Amino acid sequence: MTPVDQLPAWKALETHRDQMKNRHLRALCTDDPGRADRWRTRVGHLEVDYTKHRATEDTFHHLFALAEQTDVPAQIARLFAGARINTTEQRAVLHMALRGDAHSVFRVDGEDVMPQIMATRARMRQACETLRAGAWLGAAGEPVTDVVNIGIGGSDLGPFMACEALQPYLTDTPRVHFVSNIDGAQISRVLAPLDPRRTLFIVNSKSFGTLETKANADTAKHWLQQSGLPLDAVMSRHFLAVSANQAALSAFGIPEEHRFPIWDWVGGRYSLWSATGLAIAIAIGMDGFESMLAGARLMDEHFRHAPMIDNLPLRLGLLGVWYADFLGAASQAVLPYDDRLRSLPSYLQQADMESNGKRVTRDGQAVTWATGPIVWGAPGTNGQHAFFQLMHQGTHLIPADFIGCIRPHHPHTRHHRALIANMLAQSEALMHGRTEAETRAALAARGLDESRIDALTPHNVFPGNQPSTTILLDALTPEALGSLIALYEHRIFTQGAIWGINSFDQWGVELGKIMAQTVIGELESGQIGASHDPWSAALLTTCLAPTD
Ligand code: F6P
């Protein structure tokens, strides 16, 4: 396969980049006022504006050519057809099937996967309804009021983020809680206010081999037993599990009727649409969960069928390639202007960085181009008082996603107006900046004398030229959230497809895990093995020293 950076479209983009080098975003927009209509797309309850980008129609022309030359349309077709595109693990990638409806057909090796998805959804509904009706009784005959999801990575971040995002849809009970970290401080904090007789755990682990999850599940089991509940009753009334590892579920003692399946064609970071999202369904109800699936389905249909020119995830993915590979941007900021989306940046860190943080192509050749960006961010107005300084006047190019909701779920209209005003103002300020002449005029208007103006001007000039996308949700409903997450998933897919990498494996997380197993043994035995370098061994010695 021709390396992507040898393709004609790539070469054309390099030339185009050189021509664009000195063109300021402000001028690009002024020179093309019509882009406000053309570079804005609505899909369901999302309206996405990508006018504020260092691009022209020519840029997109070349980027579309790059998508053609890397066979992106055929790669999309193979994704939806259930081809084993996760080549290193020989797996299909079909999380879209999880949000399918009665009319959907998704096959892996010719087998229709929809019946098992629908059957699992029906079982999820039953569990949710029992729990939400207060009819799930613990071993002591008391109704369950608290559900704790134990899982990490994809078995935590999605459900956790969605439960925060959909907070206005949550009912009083059951309350949902999350434990992910191996740090005992977290499980201690979460369990402290809970009553074991009224607490149900969901052990969420596709592999059921994850150190953190196994340790937390064992601790949960002990906590329940310590309260005097007998083990068989604990296992039959206080645990549900989501996993593909039946043997480990049996060894842990989860009864078959309390197991929910997950399939090898669902990647952990794409799994909140499966029973992995049970905590979401329990928190907002199964109807709400299905609305979230419907929102994602809408984005799937759009991505699958919209022509390139109108295809939103594809366009955003192409812009990401443009910034990473031609304009040298190392990162992508995610700035939700809605506190309920505060965990979206962490969620997207796994979705994007575990998918596209790769250094070899699908056939194992080292890449000679930049791949996935560093994804980071925080709720917008908080960020404004922290890292925005660097975005406005630092030395890095940082494409940003501004995400806001037009209608809030709270009555504080004044707050909401100010929130949205800040979001709009920031994207405008980042784009326009403030020239030296404008800065001098602004300082003069404050009555400063000439020497003070001379001294302060360099510090008050804003170069601008920082690009951004603005994503507006009509409101933060389950449906809109589903579309938003699927938008990011398909953008990530598009970029991986162009870079020629496997976006669906994650070998890079393994080395540290293996080495940690050795160190755990050494900390337990007090004996440091010979495998360490002297500097790491010294740290280990310090950690072994008894502390008061
Ligand atoms: O270590 C990374 C990872 O494998 C993620 O890809 C996954 O989402 C997470 O761990 C949890 O895995 P599991 O659901 O198997 O416990």
Automatic annotation (TrEMBL):
Q: Which InterPro entries match?
A: G6P_Isomerase (IPR001672), G6P_Isomerase_C (IPR023096), Phosphoglucose_isomerase_CS (IPR018189), SIS_dom_sf (IPR046348), SIS_PGI_1 (IPR035476), SIS_PGI_2 (IPR035482)
Enzyme Commission code(s) on record: 5.3.1.9
Origin, by domain of life?
Answer: Bacteria
Location comes to: Cytoplasm
Q: What class of enzyme is it?
A: isomerase
Q: Name one Pfam family in it.
A: PGI
Query: Active site located where?
Result: 354 (proton donor), 385, 513
Q: Name one GO molecular function term.
A: glucose-6-phosphate isomerase activity
Which keywords does this chain's UniProt record carry?
Cytoplasm, Gluconeogenesis, Glycolysis, Isomerase
Gene Ontology annotations for the cellular component aspect, listed alphabetically? cytosol
**Which pathway does the UniProt entry assign to this protein?**
Carbohydrate biosynthesis; gluconeogenesis; Carbohydrate degradation; glycolysis; D-glyceraldehyde 3-phosphate and glycerone phosphate from D-glucose: step 2/4
An individual GO BP term: glucose 6-phosphate metabolic process
Catalyses: alpha-D-glucose 6-phosphate = beta-D-fructose 6-phosphate
Q: Give the similarity note.
A: Belongs to the GPI family.
User: What is the role of the protein in this entry?
Assistant: Catalyzes the reversible isomerization of glucose-6-phosphate to fructose-6-phosphate.
The protein depicted here goes by the name Glucose-6-phosphate isomerase
Taxonomic lineage is:
Bacteria, Pseudomonadati, Pseudomonadota, Gammaproteobacteria, Chromatiales
